[in-house]
Amino acid sequence: MKKYLLRRKAQLEKRLKQLKELLEKGSETRSMEEVQAEVDELTADLDAVNEALAELDETDDNNGNGAGEGEEDDENEDDEEQDEGEGEKRSILTQEQRAGLTNVINQSLSSRVQVKTNEMKTRNAFCRYLVGQISESEARAMGVQTHGGNVLVPESLAKEIIAYAQEENLLRKYGKVVQTKGTQGFPILIKKAKANRVKTERALNQPIPETDIEFDEYYLNPTETDALVLVTKKLLAMSEMNVERIVVDELKKAYVREEAEFFFNSADNPGALIRKAVAFTPTATDIYDKFVQLKNSLPTSMLKNARWMINRAALTAIETIKTADGFPLLRPDIGLEGGFGYRLLGFPVDVTDFVDAGTPNIQRLYFGDFSTFYIQDVIGTMEVTKLIEKYADTNHVGFKIWHLNDGQLVYGPFEPSVFKLELNA
């Protein structure tokens, strides 16, 4: 299998190099669309082959010895085709078009397999260094960045942690994530202006009147999110277990808990969901009518992406409620492929314990458009600190994960995007 993939890779790369030479010489006589279509097809095939090769265990270097076998005839045929096309005909492509296609080919010929292999080596070295299996100098030699006892989480692993956080933290799942290189706050401008309409053409002495604009300006403020995991030295010494995987998994869980609590319930976060969502006070006494009033209080422009986010106490209270025609108010969402869920008054329902805010007995519901929750992640700031001496008297080793980010619910003064209802508050 590997021998075939290597042979196929060599054929694709050779054809791309031939196209590159034709473009550089100005001898390609086909149209821009035809050349672009072939380059796209060759690039897609080469990417697929490279991904397949990256997944194979490269344990036997001799597997690739036959990569060039059986290609001599193809090479001669390609050379003949190239000679036939290199007559007096000149390229109909402009210099800019040829340069653009050449850049695409150069990118396709770069070794993506080597890049992925290096990422895996750095990731493994990071995990092994954390659990004390290799020294700091060995970790540095494999691409791990360390400074002052802190270890910068490799980019591939940082993306994995954030992806796990997206699965568990619903605000990260439905909100808008903005990645920045610096720690400066990300500005969000919310405004609503009044337009003007005139029935006749404006005269010279009839200028457009000034429009009143009301707006709120928000700046996200990236702050520290950190979490601590303790692991016994006995566990670190057990070589028959994949200790590195256990430590990384626990770090992911601890980070998600801390981040989600900051987004949902933190008193230090002015844009936390529990603080920024508009408290809804229904006038109805029937619980069904309360839900209807809440749903219809949301601005029409927000209803398109609206959904419910509730805790288990609210789920328990709603599951027994029936509509006037005897059907359950909370209905299964059969539109979820490969999963399960609910719909309440026609809108999707998500259940999460982070809505509890430390009071699981309160039946709390949020309803609105959660895409107005903005999250700023500062690229390259996720670090792990290994704490040995601090917990030495209990035979533990501490791992502290640290990251700079911020998350706030943002909406304009005219269109509140999320409402909060507490049924038994």
Secondary structure topology:
Layout: H1 2-25, H2 32-55, H3 72-85, H4 95-109, H5 112-130, H6 136-141, E1 146-147, E2 150-152, H7 155-168, H8 170-174, E3 176-180, E4 187-193, E5 213-219, E6 223-232, H9 233-236, H10 243-264, H11 273-276, E7 278-279, H12 287-297, E8 307-310, H13 312-319, E9 330-332, E10 342-344, E11 347-351, E12 364-368, E13 373-378, E14 383-387, E15 396-409, E16 418-422
Parallel strand pairs: 3-13, 7-16, 8-11
Antiparallel strand pairs: 1-2, 2-14, 4-5, 6-15, 8-12, 9-10, 10-11, 12-16, 13-15, 14-15
Helix pairs in contact: 1-2, 1-4, 2-4, 2-5, 5-10, 7-10
- Report on the biggest sheet: 7 strands, mixed
What best-fitting shape do the alpha-carbon axes yield? globular
Based on DSSP secondary structure assignment, what is the total number of beta strands? Answer: 16
Number of separate helices: 13
Report on this model:
The strands form three sheets. Strands 1, 2, 3, 6, 13, 14 and 15 form a seven-stranded mixed sheet that branches. The chain has a seven-stranded mixed sheet with strand order 7-16-12-8-11-10-9. It has a two-stranded antiparallel ribbon with strand order 4-5. Residues 57-88 have low confidence and may be disordered. The chain is 40% helix and 20% strand. The chain has 425 residues and is of the alpha+beta class.
